[in-house]
Amino acid sequence: MTDLVTSEIHGGIGYLTLNRPQALNALSLEMIRAITKALNDWAAAPEVVAVVVAGAGGKAFCAGGDIRFFHKAALAGDPLLDQFFVEEYALNHLIHRYAKPYIALMDGVVMGGGMGISQGARRRLVTERTKMAMPETNIGLFPDVGGGWFLSRTPGRLGEYLGLTGAVLHAADALYAGLADAYLPGNAMAELVDVLRARQFGSGDAVLACIDEATAAHRAACPPGESHLAALQGEIDRLFAGASVIDIVAAVSDAGSDWAAQTAAMLRARSPLMLNVTLEQVRRARTMALEDELRMELDMMYCVFRHGDGVEGIRALAVDKDHAPKWQPPRLDEVTRERVRAFFDSPWARGEHPLAAL
Asked: Domain Enoyl-CoA hydratase/isomerase spans what residues (predicted)?
């Protein structure tokens, strides 16, 4: 294993720890390969009955992919950029279909690629420190790593809202949206890990039962608070049901509430092109199988760094940090239907798709 991902087995559980705290455990290709290898090895190992994945450092589970690498590789025409997403999406699929219980301890920042390695988990645990989002439109990308699939399966029009705005969710909202399964205070999550490490488990079901017992014990005594999303659901469903991004932005702008004003400002700051691409992605994904949706995302990502706003968005946010991206086109009314559709044209013949085997 790489130093950036540590692995160990205790009492029947395989523990994976993302160990890149200085970068909020952002995923590199090396880390993706290390996680994939461990999961494949453990899938066939009788001494491992379940897997627990966590992030080191106390601030983040995983803040996403290594966007600085994306920027550098895109400018250099490095073929490892495409390979990164091929292997990342294959890992996301592996997690969703993993035969043994896979448990994600989603403490701290959980964004982008961090959602990709947690949303397929059998148990997704959040804490009072959880900050969850799919913020890709802010850097000229779209909510990938299966984002179209899991966002489109949230209640009502939350998928459109979360995908377009990149709004940050805390524990109660994550639970309400169906993007987490249970809440534990951070100190109780640490205690749960100690309990798991101290016991010997003979089955994955026994591991899940232990986790469920711990979360149930805290449910009444220490609830995660009220969900703001739940209170906004009706308004979100009404405002984000528009047929186009222009319709949605107009509806949000006219709504009048402080929340709507803040949301409209968020939308106006995002890439107009990628807002349109994301809306199309989420709505297509509602009727797609996970495997087809991941293949679609790879097609889309192939286009993002060649004909989209990805390079410019990352430059503005993470490289030059001027926070003044020059989106192309700069206005919503300049985004053509043909430009959006091009993101959904696969560059590969069906049998030759890099994710054909999913």
From this structure: 14-344
Report the residue count for the chain: 358
Show me where the domains of the chain are located: 5-352
pLDDT tens profile 146-160: 999 999 999 999 999
Average pLDDT over residues 156-181: 98
What pLDDT score was predicted for residue 224? 83
- DSSP designation for 65: B
- How much is the mean pLDDT over the chain? 96
Q: Which CATH superfamily is domain 5-352 in?
A: 2-enoyl-CoA Hydratase; Chain A, domain 1 (3.90.226.10)
Contacts of 337 (CB under 8 A, 6+ apart): none
3-state SS record for 244-285: CHHHHHHHHHCCCCHHHHHHHHHHHHCCHHHHHHHHHHHHHH
Note the pLDDT of residue 1. Answer: 57
3-state secondary structure of 123: strand
Which residues are tagged catalytic?
A: 65, 113, 136, 144
Separation between Cα atoms, residue 236 and residue 160, nearest integer Å: 9
pLDDT digits (tens, 9 = 90+) for 178-225: 999 999 999 999 999 999 999 999 999 999 999 999 999 888 767 788
Tokens 């299966």 locate to 146
- Burial code of 300-334, b = ≥16 C-beta within 10 A, e = fewer? bbbbbbeebbbbbbbbbbeeeeeeebebbeeebee
pTM, to two decimals: 0.96
Q: What is the DSSP string of 277-332?
A: HHHHHHHHHTTS-HHHHHHHHHHHHHHHHHHSSHHHHHIIIIIS-------SSSSG
